[in-house]
Amino acid sequence: MKLLTFSTLFPNSIRPNHGIFVETRLRYLVASGKASAQVVAPVPWFPSTHPRFGSYANFARVPREETRNGLNVAHPRYALIPKIGMNVAPALLAQGVKPVIARMLDQGNDFDLIDAHYFYPDGVAAAALGRYFNKPVVITARGSDITLIPQHRTARRLIVEAAARADAMITVCNALKTGLTELGADPHKIHSLRNGVDLVRFQPGDRAALRAELGMKGFTLISVGNLAPVKGHDLTIQALTLMPDTSLWIAGAGPDRAKLEALAAELGVSERVRFLGSVPNTELHRFYAAADAMVLASSREGWANVLLESMACGTPVVATRVWGTPEVVTAPAAGILMDERSPAGLADAVARLRATYPDHAATRRYAEGYSWDDTTNGQLALFEQVLNARRR
C-alpha cells in the first residue's frame, strides 16, 4: 500500500530530534516491505535565516525536500500566526500543503491513504485534505493533542469534527483512547497501538567504561526531554535537596534552561546538575546505559518513548503516574511510579527504587517485550481494513 504520511512533527536536517517518534514508527512500517510512504512534513514559513531571529530562523533553514533514512520528505511552508492563530492553524496548514499534494498527483505519485500524526492542527488539516482529494484518512493521537489542546473550545470542536471525518484513529496508549472517546469520538473507530523501541539502537553497554568516559560519578539520574514546564525538570532539581548523594544529568534544550540553571544555583545544587543540551537520538544510549536511573517528572504524557529507550539500555525509570505512563511501567524490572508529583514524591520513589534495585538484564528483558513488530502489524491490518471499506 502507498501512504502519504503527513505531520508537522517530523525530523529534518535542522531539527533532527523533532518528532523522531513519528519517523521511527514509519521506518519500521516501511521496512516490513508491505507499505511505501511519501512524507509531507510542513514547517512554518519564515522570511530569513539571519541569526538575530533566533530559533525562528531555523524554519527558513529547513530544505524544501530531503531524504531521511530512505524516505523522501517534502517540507512545504505554511502560514503560522503566533499567539492569535491557533483557531485558523488547521485551515492555513491545509492551504499550504494542498498545492504540494496536487503536484505529487499530477506527477503520477499517487497514494492510497493519508497517515496523519497529531490531531491538532495536523489531523484536522488532514481530514480536510482527505475530503478534497477523496482519500481515506487515519489520524494518530499522540499526547497533548488530546490531553491539553481540547481545553480550547474551537480546537475541541475541530478535533471532534475531524474524528468524525476520519476513517480510523490510532492512539499510542489506552488512556488517550479513553480521552478521545470522552471528547465524543466514535470508540469503534479508535485503535490503540502503542509505540515500540529500537532495540538495536538502544541497548546496554559497558557501564563502568561509559561512566569513566562521560565523567559520571556517584548515583546519577538522567532526564531526557525539552526544557519546558510540562517536563517537570524543576521538580527533579528541587528533589536533589532531599537526595544529597545524587546527581542529575539533563539532556534537552528549550526555553527554560536559564530558569532551571538559576533554580539549581538558588538551591545550592548546581555542582550536582549537568545540562547536556540537545543530544542526538543516536547518542542517547550512552547516557542511558551509564546512568543509574532515568527520571521523567512530566505533568502529562501520551506514551513517553524515553522510558522504553532507557529500559532497553538496562536502566530502570522513575516516572509520574500520568496518562499512558502506567501502561509503560508495569513491573518492578521497569522501575517505579511516583505516588505524588512533587519533589518529595520523586525523592521517595528514587529511594524505593534504590532499595529494591532491579537487575539491569531484567530491565532490558522487560523492554524487549516492546519491539515495533506488533505496532507495525497492527497498522498494516488497520490500513488494509480502511482501504477495503473504501473499496466497498
Explain what the structure shows.
The strands form three sheets. This protein has an eight-stranded mixed beta sheet, sandwiched between helices. It folds into two domains: 211 residues, Rossmann fold; 164 residues, 3-Layer(aba) Sandwich (Rossmann fold), CATH 3.40.50. β15, α13 and β16 form a beta-alpha-beta unit. With 392 residues, it is α/β, with parallel strands linked by helices. It starts with a strand and ends with a helix.
Brief sketch in words of this structure:
This protein is 41% helix and 17% strand. The chain is built from 16 helices and 16 strands. It starts with a strand and ends with a helix.
Please write out the topology.
Blueprint: E1 2-6, H1 20-31, E2 36-40, E3 43-44, H2 57-61, E4 65-68, E5 71-74, E6 77-78, H3 89-106, E7 113-117, H4 119-133, E8 137-141, H5 144-147, H6 153-165, E9 168-171, H7 174-183, E10 190-192, H8 207-214, E11 219-224, H9 233-239, E12 246-251, H10 257-266, E13 273-277, H11 284-290, E14 293-296, H12 305-312, E15 317-319, H13 325-328, E16 335-337, H14 343-355, H15 360-367, H16 373-391
Parallel strand pairs: 1-2, 1-7, 2-5, 3-6, 7-8, 8-9, 9-10, 11-12, 11-14, 12-13, 14-15, 15-16
Antiparallel strand pairs: 4-5
